[in-house]
Amino acid sequence: MTHILENPKNSKFMELAISLAKKGMGYTAPNPCVGAVITKGNTILGQGYHRRCGEDHAEVAAIKDAISKGHDLKDSTLWVTLEPCNHYGKTPPCTHAILKHNIKEVNIGTLDPNPNVKGGGAEFLKSKGVIVDIGFNEIQCKNLIRDFITWHKKKRPYIFLKLAQSLDGKIATENGDSKWISSQKSREFVHNLRAKVDCILIGGNTFFNDNPKLTPRIEANEKKDPFAAIITSRLPGSDSEYYLINSRPKKTIFITTESDYEKIKGLQKKGVKIIHTEKKNGYINLYQVLSKLFSDLNCYYILCEGGGRLAQSLVKNKLADEIFLFIAPIILGDDRAKSSFSGNTVAKIKDGYKFDIIDYRKIDTDLLIHLIPKGDI
Amino acid sequence: MTHILENPKNSKFMELAISLAKKGMGYTAPNPCVGAVITKGNTILGQGYHRRCGEDHAEVAAIKDAISKGHDLKDSTLWVTLEPCNHYGKTPPCTHAILKHNIKEVNIGTLDPNPNVKGGGAEFLKSKGVIVDIGFNEIQCKNLIRDFITWHKKKRPYIFLKLAQSLDGKIATENGDSKWISSQKSREFVHNLRAKVDCILIGGNTFFNDNPKLTPRIEANEKKDPFAAIITSRLPGSDSEYYLINSRPKKTIFITTESDYEKIKGLQKKGVKIIHTEKKNGYINLYQVLSKLFSDLNCYYILCEGGGRLAQSLVKNKLADEIFLFIAPIILGDDRAKSSFSGNTVAKIKDGYKFDIIDYRKIDTDLLIHLIPKGDI
């Protein structure tokens, strides 16, 4: 009996292009992150990635890299995670650069999902005699642009959810002690994530109990100064001593159902932003307020740092695009301790929310599980 | 500045010996599991492991294997996970076999922790001119005999705790639905574990709600027929239709505080065993009843399959020697669902029970985390 083996079309060059693309992740919006490698036989001539909107696309960056090293690109192969663009945006079409340098073959990770572009670049290159092959390391390449797809198709920010829990799913003791469940290295990972997002989202309890700073406390050449958005039914007084409203008022946003005009005015006077919202059937429309952060404040990436009720609301509303779940090797064993996800009711196991584990690894003593909604690639 | 690098004394031959030892795990009691490899230069001459009590020790099995292949053992090297014995038990001392075959060098994983033996075999071999080196892959070799150390030092069974939970630490919904949190392959793993233990331990709720069989349902040349022990405050009637008391009465043990003489008599008449115990300050003495299973019924290995209160009691009483925690990629998000560990009260995170992750891997869609108590090697 013969088995027909699936050919997943994996290439080490595409893997390199993917790792290059990831370097730009967080900084390219509204563009996707893209990586590119140029080879001849087994030799790498050049490599590049899209660093930020307005700068060179990955293909052009790789071409420039190869030329700066004195290589002739005639008959070379370009490996690019996303289909090259074929239109004039802030930069000229990559397809032109490919043709100009006589690149012979273009191997593409995945096609551009943007309806304006779909098939455009690849088809155009083929029509000009370039050998085009599509679908190398395709799942990983599609994963790279999940953010981009979310912006275009859902018109909302791409949302990371981060939680640090015990083995038995607790994020704090009954009286709120949570320092520290996760290891120093896990917390560093989170600060790196904070440096790539435009807004950090928390619930009111986290704001009032922890009085957090929510800044990316890392050394980095490139880091953002994210907004802090707090979803809360009650506002603090403008004269209260919370760090965010005193030290980072212009970076603080309250998403609230409270309509105390005096409080709102006081906070706004300090520079704090207020997004007023209404409850409907006991719930606020999370999609609506998050879309507002996207459209009005250019929040392309949001990192939600809990607590459990907000985390569960995101999951329930299909707004948790990626979950980073840090599991510390401790057991609390206390039913009254606070759960990582809370506020839901399920009768059957099969009614739970399903995810795919896309990565898992030790970070110091913790285990980090990286998840995306099941089948959502 | 120079760094003094730790030399962990790892060897691929000791790794092989360790994997051989694991083949015997579960079947060697009251002996430890041991693996051995004989080499000359980079060539493996023979290998073996201790299969069960009364049969060849690993060293002798490896020597016989090498001889059966026509090798001369003069000037060879023996790699053995545990210090060779130097006393007459059910088999002659391994040290004699080593000397008889002129093995030149003996590399040992870890010394025998048994006070009767400590230093004996290694010292004796040295005194006879054999080159002895100790501490190869030592942590793993020590891990291999954690069961053996438990039997000797704690006079109780070695206890595995297995739980299958959602990402947020739930083992069942509020109304008890738990079929199935974990994947088919994870459940097969558990059946393999069942085949190596002498007793499977559950709580009364699991018995009454799930009416379990608790048999190892796998195809295997070698498998045990473990007892089912139920810790419960109430006994079922002897005429009730639970699987265990009807189909496997002689393999069923109730550990109970109930003293209804008629019920006890009825169950005993069927062949069911009853271990009566008392509560003290609201708790039964778990150590005491588990020691009884060890001393009276030769239960060397116990596998506890929950629920959450029993799991937490084992952890609290330092009776969970190894935890196999299966995490399925689902979120229930329901505070009323049943937790994997329950019944404890902790004020501070630092008061939680601490573990070391010794292994973690995907099993189908689940993640299996393998833990031992922190620092407990």
Give your account of this protein's structure.
The structure is a homodimer of 377-residue chains. Chain A has 377 residues and is an alpha/beta fold. Chain A has twelve helices and 19 strands. Chain A has helices spanning 12-24, 58-68, 94-100, 120-127, 138-144, 146-154, 184-194, 204-210, 243-247, 261-270, 286-297, 308-316, and strands at 35-40, 43-49, 77-82, 105-110, 131-134, 158-166, 170-172, 199-203, 227-232, 252-256, 273-276, 279-280, 283-284, 301-304, 322-328, 330-331, 338-339, 353-363, 366-373. In chain A, strands 11-10-9-8-14-6-15-19-18 form a nine-stranded mixed beta sheet, sandwiched between helices. Chain A has a five-stranded mixed beta sheet with strand order 2-1-3-4-5. The longest helix of chain A has 13 residues, at 12-24. The radius of gyration of chain A is 23 Å and the shape is elongated. The relative contact order of chain A is 0.12. Mean pLDDT of chain A is 93; it is low at 1-5. Chains A and B meet through helix 12, strand 16, strand 18 and strand 19 of A and helix 12, strand 16, strand 18 and strand 19 of B. Strand 16 (330-331) of chain A pairs antiparallel with strand 18 of chain B.
